[in-house]
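Q: What does the predicted 3D structure of Sugar ABC transporter substrate-binding protein look like?
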Amino acid sequence: MMRRRTTLLASCTALALSLGATACGGGGPVSAGGGDKPLSGQTINVAGVWSGSEQKNFQKVLDAFTEKTGAKTQFTSTGDNVSTVVGSKIEGGNAPDVVMVPQVGVLQQFAEEGWLRPLSKTARKSVDANYADVWKNYGSVDGSLYGLYFKAAHKSTVWYSPDALDEAGVEAPASYDAMLEAGRTVSESGLAAFSVAGQDGWTLTDWFENVYLSQAGPEKYDALAAHETKWTDPSVVAALTTLGKLFKDKELIAGGQKGALNTDFPGSVEKVFGPEPAAGMVYEGDFVAGVAKDQFGKKIGEDADFFPFPAVGDGKAPVVSGGDAAVVLKDGKSPKAAMAFLEYLATPEASAVWAEVGGFLSPNKELDLASYGDDITRETAKSLVDAGDSVRFDMSDQAPAAFGGTKGAGEWKLLQDFLRDPSDPKATAAALEKAAAKAYQD
């Protein structure tokens, strides 16, 4: 579908001036109001997937924007089906002003539907100055920058109980094979090595992506993410074979394959950091720390720690990320205030608000690491920023939702099937290609 061209409304405000910016329309600065609260009287509606503690923490960012500008804010939680919810609101004449989009594929869909306004000159300037190019690329469609990545996830972290590893006498491994060997030593000490959240198919895509990025390399990763390389490629079969070594080893997985398929993500964290530990390690993103801290009272860095997902074979250690990009809908009712909000989100000041309360990483390299509340989060954030353009966005989030983001279908289901029976990587690769081809064609 051809993307309908839209005209960028001037969105520069006194807020932009306070950030040292100029008007984005080429003339003098545009004021949205008077006094110290330039957007008083305006309201923006922001939609996003967040709920619970994440929504509560994002509200602090919204409140800080209100304090700075006078604009009121309303947040609507969409749940996981962002595309469906937002599309319905647009059709009903009730489009939100800003959407926090969690998937590259959805951002691209929104742009192709003609729903989005390109970012203002002020926001683009901040992205150019404060972000690695990779974040700009993931926020762009057909050469226009639509998405401002505010919140990121570091999905190349393996979390562990220091007590469990100490009891087994093992240290954080430096290679994938060493990680499996360390896991076997942990299992000999009485705990399973890994808690795997197989009930949630998205966690299995993350396992695959880390193995594939390290083993096949970034160029192959990009080609597979764009479906320029087929899933039947030998590199995919090799990665599935590597992953299958873990999935089929009953010593390594808490409850075996059946137990993993009955464990969701929060349950996988509980099996390591809950009151009755069943495993020593759990792989997932930096957000594991939030669950371990908030639900099980663990002190990050003492009761819960992480090591980087290790390199596979001769490859480099992977850095897979995810993130939420702020976009402005063209049918929103407050376009100037909405764009001013994105200009605010592009500043280190806005990121610091959430960083201070935890459960947050920023791709903004100008954010002072001292803003984060603990050394482990600072280490994770530094790793993400230092990775620069070698970061690769979650592959399943780049795919059409029918393949990479639907419960019980596509990649999620097929990798669950592979966890259940990892004996035939070639057959799994063929099934993945069949599902991918249909989703990309549709």
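A (community wiki): The structure tokens above were generated from the sequence. Confidence is low (pLDDT under 50) at residues 1-35. The two ends are 11 Å apart (CA to CA).
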